[in-house]
Amino acid sequence: MFVCARRASAASLRRAHLSTTTHLTPVAEHDIAHFSEFLSPSSIISSLSPRSSPAQELEPFNNDWMGRFHGRSTTVLKPKTTRQVSQILKWCNERRIGVVPQGGNTGLVGGSVPVNDEVILSLSSLNKVRSFDPVSGILVADAGCILQSLTDYVAPHNHIMPIDLGAKGSCQIGGNVATNAGGLRLLRYGSLHGTVLGLEVVLPDGTILDQLTTLRKDNTGYDLKQLFIGAEGTLGVITGVSILTPPAPQASNNVILALPSFDNVLPLYQTVKRQLSEILSAFEFIDRTAYDLAVKHGQGRALSDEDVAGAECFVLVETSGGRREHDEEKLNDLLELLLTADKPLINTGVLSQSPAQFSSIWALREGVTEAVSKEGKAYKYDISVPLSSFKRVVDDTREHLRSKGLLHDRAVKYVIGYGHVGDGNLHLNIVADAYLPEIEDALEPYIYEVVASFRGSISAEHGIGAMKTHALPYSKSAVSIDLMKKIKHVFDPRGIMNPGKVLE
Amino acid sequence: MFVCARRASAASLRRAHLSTTTHLTPVAEHDIAHFSEFLSPSSIISSLSPRSSPAQELEPFNNDWMGRFHGRSTTVLKPKTTRQVSQILKWCNERRIGVVPQGGNTGLVGGSVPVNDEVILSLSSLNKVRSFDPVSGILVADAGCILQSLTDYVAPHNHIMPIDLGAKGSCQIGGNVATNAGGLRLLRYGSLHGTVLGLEVVLPDGTILDQLTTLRKDNTGYDLKQLFIGAEGTLGVITGVSILTPPAPQASNNVILALPSFDNVLPLYQTVKRQLSEILSAFEFIDRTAYDLAVKHGQGRALSDEDVAGAECFVLVETSGGRREHDEEKLNDLLELLLTADKPLINTGVLSQSPAQFSSIWALREGVTEAVSKEGKAYKYDISVPLSSFKRVVDDTREHLRSKGLLHDRAVKYVIGYGHVGDGNLHLNIVADAYLPEIEDALEPYIYEVVASFRGSISAEHGIGAMKTHALPYSKSAVSIDLMKKIKHVFDPRGIMNPGKVLE
C-alpha cells in the first residue's frame, strides 16, 4: 500500500488551526451571563466580565502537561450534572461556539486543549460513582471520575479496573473511553471496545443519548457507543460510563529473561503463551540499548553482568492468577523448560522472589522512559507493527539516520525500541542531544511511511488529537476518512465539538 | 423508563414488508446478462431466463431453517472474490435492486432471507483462509468460511476460535460478525466487538472499505468496523474478517450444583468467580422446571433423586485452564468450601470424573432445548435482564399467564428459565400445547414491557432481523433509533442493503 500524505510544518499547522475555527464564534460576555443562569459561580472560570478570573486560573486548562500544546480559551465551564452539560452544548451549538471536552488533560497528542479560543468543558466536577454491582462486576460512573478513585472504589469488592495507565492518578474514565486508552492490562482484559458496556453521551445539540446499560449482551441495532470510544470528544461529550470490572487476581509474579537474539522473541512468546495460558498478563520487550540505558540511569539490575553478556534483548513476563502456588509452579516449569531445551531460546532468566524484586523487575521496564528523558531529548513514536518487524523498524530507523549523517553525539545518540509484544505495540524512541529540525525532517514522514508499508498504525494507543491529523492518511484509507467525515457531520453538523482534532 | 411501541400483527408485518421494498426494482433478465459478464455460470442461480434454474434450487436460500421466514427471490449470486461482490453491489445500487447478504442462513430472526424479491448474495463461495499468524493468534479469513472449518484450521496451532455456537457446522464467520453472535465462550473471551480486529466490507455503492488490519491496537480515528458488527448486513457486505484467536485451554472440567433457593445463585456466582478466577469459563443457570423437563426427556441424571430433592434450581460451572491438576484442585477446593460452609449455598454438587461425565453434565443443560421442543410448541425469548431478576421475570410471566386463564394443559404447560448467568442472558421459554393467538397476545408486548422496565435487551444475542424491528423501541430510545437511521443513510442512501431488517 502506497500512502501519500501532506506533511505540515509547525507554521502551516498553526495556520491550519486558526482556519479550523473560523466558522466558530468566540465566547462573549452575554454567553457568560447565560451560563450563570444554571451554573454556580464556582463552575465558571472566565477572563471575561463579570467573572474576570485571573489568567493563571485558566492556564492549567489551556496547556497540556508536556507544555507542548497551548490554547487561548477565555472560559472554562465545570458542570456538575449531565443536564448542565446538555444546557451548555445546546447553547454553544446555537451560538456556534467551539467546545473542547477535557478530562484529566493527560493526553500525549494535544487532544484536550483548544487549538484556538474554544470553551473548555471540564468534566472534573461530574465525578460520582452511580452504581456498582459486586455480583456482575459492572460499574457505572460519571465521566469525570479519576481512574485511581475507581480502582480504589472496586478494590474492597475484590475487583479491579480493566485498564491501568501511568496517568491513573489524574486521568478520568470519560477521557480514557474517549481516547480508547490502552495501557498495561490490554493483553489480559482486552480493549475498551469490549469492556465498556454502555455510555451516556451529550450530543452537540444538547440531546442526551442514554445508552448507559449494564448489559453484557444486547443485539438490538447498531452499537452506537462504539463510535464514541476513541473519537476523542469530536462527536459528543461522554458524561457516564458503564464498564465491566474483572475479579482481582490473587497473586502476581514476574520474570526477566535475557535472549541471545531478537529472532527468539516470537518463538518465546509462543512457548510462554502455551505454558502460562490464562495467567499470562504481560509480555514486554526491551531491546539491548534500552536495557543498558535503564541500568545506566540507576535501575537495580535483576541480572548480573554475566547474565547480560551476549544478550541482544530482554523480555519481561508477568503472571496474574487465582492461586500463588499454582502460578509459581507454572512459571518454574516454564523456566526449566526454557533452560533445558536443546536449543535454548534464552540465555538466562530471573524469577522475582519477593514483592521488592517484583517491583524492581517492573522498574527496569518502566525506567526506560525516565532514562530516555535523562539522556536527552526524545522523539517518541507509539506505533503498531507486526511483532516480527519490531527489530527491523528500530534498526532501519537507526540506519536511515546514519545515512543522513545524523547518528553522532551532537545529533541522535540512541535509537531504541521497547513495548508491548503481546499487543503488537512498539515504542520507538529516538534520543537526541537536542530537538533539531533536520532530525525531525529525517524522521517524518519516514517513520509514518515505514508504518504504512507494514499496514501498521501510526498511533497504537495515544490517539490523533491535534498532533497527528495530518498523518491520519498513513493509517486510514481515503474511503475510511471520507466515512469518518460523514459520521462527524451526522453528529456534529456545525462542527463545534473539539475542532481541529482527529479530522483536519 | 416508559417505552411505548406499536405492536404489529402478522398481517400488518406482511404489509410493512411489501412497502419496505417498494422503492426497489426487481431483478430482470438483462441484470442476469450483466452478472454473467463477470460471474461464472455456477455462481448464478436464477429462475429468470437464460438461467431458468428450477424452483427447488432457490428454495434453501429463500427460507430460513426454522421454516418461519420466506422470501420470493428469483436470483441467488455466489461471488468468489471481493471484487465480484463489489461489481454486484455497484450494479444493484445503480439499478436500485435490493440485496440480502446470506451466510449460513442459521439465524433465528429472519435476518438472512428476503422480505420480498431482493437478490440473495450468498457468501458461501468466498471461503478461503487468507492468513494465520501462530505467534499472535490472528486469523484473517474470507467471510464465507464456516466457523467449524476455522476452528479446525487453528486447532493444530493450539488455538481456538473466540466464539462457539450450536450452529458452528453451518454458520459462517461473516454472518457471525454481522449478527454479533454471542454463544458459549462470551463469558471467557468477550464479545466480537473486542476480538474482531479488522474487517473488509463492500459498501452498497461497490466501494471496498479495507480495514482488514491485524493490529491489536490502532487509535487512528473512529472505529468504523464496529458499526458493521451487529448491523445484520444493513450497512454493507462483510467480505473478510481479521480475528484474534486465543490459545487453546489444556484442560476442561465441569460440575453441576443443586441449590435450595434461587436467592443463592448470586452469592454462589460471586464465590465461584473469586475461587476459580481466570479458569471459570461457564456459569449456566437452569430452573427446576427446566431441569425436570430435561430429565423427563431422557437426559442421564448426574444427580440422584436424593440430591435433587428440595432443589429450586441448578447451576453448571465449567473451567478451562492450562493445567488439569491445578484446575481440579481449585474445583475440589471450591466444592469443599461450598459444602462445609455454615450456611451452605448448595445442597450438593457433582464433579465430572471423566470425559463421558463431562459431556453428560453439558447434555443436561443443552438438553433443555430438545426437551422443550418434544413437550410442545415453544415461545422463545432471548433477553438480557439483571441477574437478580431472572427468577422474577419467569415467575411473573407464569403468574401473568395464570391471571389470563392460560396456564393449563390445553394452553401453556410450562414457563421455564435457563441461560447464561455470567452474561446476564436469560432464555425464557413458554411451552404450550399449540401456538394460539391468545397466548401470543398475552405474551407480547407484555414481555417486552417487562424487559424495558429493567432497562434490559429484547434481544441479547439473536438480533433484530425482520422479526423484531417493531419491538426495537423497547430496547433503544428514539434518539438512538434516529441516529441509527442517519447512519444507515450515510452508508446506504438508496436503501438497497437487506431492506426491512433491523430498522423499519
TrEMBL record, chains A, B:
SUPFAM superfamilies: FAD-binding/transporter-associated domain-like (SSF56176), FAD-linked oxidases, C-terminal domain (SSF55103). Its cofactor is FAD. Residues 69-248 form the FAD-binding PCMH-type domain. InterPro entries: FAD-bd_oxidored_4_C, FAD-bd_PCMH, FAD-bd_PCMH-like_sf, FAD-bd_PCMH_sub1, FAD-bd_PCMH_sub2, FAD-linked_Oxase-like_C, FAD-oxidored/transferase_4, Oxid_FAD_bind_N. It catalyses: (R)-lactate + 2 Fe(III)-[cytochrome c] = 2 Fe(II)-[cytochrome c] + pyruvate + 2 H(+). Coiled coil: none annotated. One of its GO terms (cellular component) is mitochondrion. The keyword Oxidoreductase applies. The keyword Flavoprotein applies. Keywords: FAD, Flavoprotein, Oxidoreductase. It comes from the Eukaryota. GO terms for molecular function: D-lactate dehydrogenase (cytochrome) activity; FAD binding. Belongs to the FAD-binding oxidoreductase/transferase type 4 family. This is FAD-binding PCMH-type domain-containing protein. It comes from Galerina marginata (strain CBS 339.88).
